[in-house]
Structures are given as C-alpha cells and as structure tokens.
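Quick one: structure for this chain?
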Amino acid sequence: MNKILLIIKREYLSRVKKKSFIIMTILGPLLMAGIMVVPIWLSMQKPDRQNIEVIDESYLFKGLIPEKAFIHFDYPEVTFEQAQEGFYDTDYDAILYIPHNILEGGKTLKLFYKKQLGIATEEYVDNTISKMMNDVLLTKNKVDLSIIREAAEHSKIIVITEELESTGKSKKTNTGLYMAIGLGGGILIYMFIFLYGVQVMRGVMEEKTNRIVEVILSSVKPFQLMMGKIIGVALVGLTQFLLWVILTTTLYGVASVTILKNVEMKQIQQNEEVVKVGADLNYTKMKKIQEPNIISKVFDDFKNVDILTITFCFLFYFLAGYLMYAALFAAVGSAVDNEADTQQFMVPITIPLVLSFLVAQNVIQDPQSTMAFWFSIVPLTSPIVMMVRLPFGVPFWEVALSMSLLVVGFVFTTWLAARIYRTGILLYGKKVTWRELGKWLFYKG
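Got it. Here's what it folds into:
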C-alpha cells in the first residue's frame, strides 16, 4: 500500500507542477466566468442610436412609427430623390422608403444605409411596419381592432411546469435549465475522461519507451504501478476541477458586485404599443404585459435544483467513470511502443464514450424513455447518460443500480487491464494483435 501511495504522490506532484496545469487552471475559470458574465453585461449595454429618415409616400405612417432607445425616426418634407441626393450631408444613418402603393400590393419597403445597420434595427422596422399594416388592412375591412387586441391579450398563455410528488406537494421545474445542467455535466465528464485517460496512456508509454519502467518494476508490482498512476492522475483531475469551481465562483461573485451591480433581479414591464395609423383610426394602447426578467427567472428556478445531490453524483460518476476508462487506457499504453499503434485498440474504448454523448442529446428530449434507462445503467455509458438524466429526477433505485454496476464495471476493467499491463509493460519492439491480448488475459504468474 505504501508503494502505491508513493507512486500516487509522484504522479500527482509531477503533473500539478507543470506550467500547462497552472495555465489551464487559471484560464478555465476565466472562460467559464466569462461565459456567465459577458452575456449579462452585454445585455445591459445600450445599443448605438440609429437615426432613420422616413420618406412616406403613402402618408399612412408619417409621425406615427413608435420609437425605441436605439432607434429614432424623422419625417422631413422632402421627396425620395432629394433625400437620396443629400443623404451623405445629413446625420441620418438610413432612409426608410415607403411607396405610395403599399396598400395596392406594393409590399416592399426599402431601407438605404451608409453603414450596415444592426440586426435589431432591421428586425424592428420590419416587425413594426408589418403590425401597423395589419391594423390598416383590418380597419379598411371594418374589423373592430379592440376585439382583435383583446383576443391577442387574453390568448397569451404562460405555461408553468411543476412536479407533483406522491405526498401531494408540488415543485416548480424548468426544463430548459435542467437540460443545460444535465448536458453541461455530461460534457464535462466526457472531456475529463478523454483528457486524463489519454494522459495515463501517454504516461505509461513514455515510461515504457524510456525503459524507466524496468527500474520501477524492480521495486513494485505492475498492478501497484498501474493503480498508482491511475489514481494519481485522477487526483490531478479532481484538484483541477475543484479549483475551477472555487475560482469561477469567486470571479462570478466579484463580477456580481462590480460589473453586474446594476442588474436588478426583478420583474420588468414590456409595453407594446399599437399606434394611430392614418386619420380615420383611433389611437390605442395595449395593456402592459408583465413578464419576468429572464435572468431573475433562471436564478429563481435554480433554487429548486437539488444541487448537493447533483454535485455528489457528478463527482461519483466523474471518478468512477474515469477510473474504469483510465484502466483501459493504461492497458493500451502498456501494449504498444508508440502512439500510432494505439489507434486499433482505442476505437473499441472510445465508441461507448462517443455513443453515450450522442445518445445524451436524445435523452434530454425524453429522460424517462427505455433507451435513457438502459444507457444510464450500462457501466460504459452510464457516467454521461445518467448525469444528463439526474436534473430531471431519477428514482433512487435506478441511481443506486447504476452506481453499483459502475463500481462492478470498474473492478472488472481494472482486473482486465492489470492482466494485459503486467505482460505488455515489458514487451518491446513487437506489433501486438487482438489475439495476443486475449492470450495475455490467461497467463499465469
């Protein structure tokens, strides 16, 4: 046992002292905090104000197009030709041309600009004029706009999903948030298994090709060396992950009281106006629609997530899944002399990982399906698929069965890898085949 601990210590310290480990440990939290903070910060920034010159030959919209903080409309008494000639002598960013025959089938508006307008400006002009045209046509056909607006107002339904427990209590849920947590956890496990599993394989190959392993094996058994290397790299991965969590949380906390200090987690009002169109229509304002701030809604829904259970399960599936696959990676590293020869043995190992990642994208659509159940139980795919299912709620017996089988899978793959490792680690200069690997499993000694 002491020898395994010494190997673990050597593997751990040699890796955490590398510049690559330190750089990635710092860059990881910066990137993750940036992903959370930057979109919120950008949403707080006021867009540049666009000044639009409106040439309305139909006289339906003159002075009536509603404005926003990022867009302003002017209606000068000039013709379209005059506006074009003097365009570059004005402060206008664009000319909105509305033809005189817009009600007779001339549905095409033209927006001329000096520099490319933002997508928000283009969409706002398109949507606003379309809504106003809709009101014009309805009124022209003697349709009561108040009935249309009342129907539109009362037909807007907000669906709130809640899980009804057997005790009669209900709990608010957020499917989108659960998808993000589950898929995010699955992707992290997928990346960590590949990243640190390959490190184990390359570490074994390096020691083998440098003949260092011959010296090491004079003092320790092959199984002890393999387990020490696998556990040592696992602790490196766990250390890096925990540092990422701590640093990301710290950076986000600092950002929340500095960059994001003006973000108020409360409901906001969205006021949509239908304006007067033409001399014969009445000015009407729709009732204010109360909609929750999206950021506030996500944070409120996040409080209903059992984060402790998900974190515990993530750590378990991360470690158990890594240990199972790392043993196989170590076996591959011991059987070959160079990285080019690993391809034939890597494919069977990577197929279950890639398959589980592909299946996970379908599992989020139906977490309780038969396919989701079986892929979250089978050890080779359960670390990723079960992680995706957990936020949606999984019966305790399924989680217990999945974890138990994963432990059994780890024990079996470790035994399998140890049989290959003890023979392959001292074999040099020979192309190993699948048949020979099979023979190594039954060697005695």
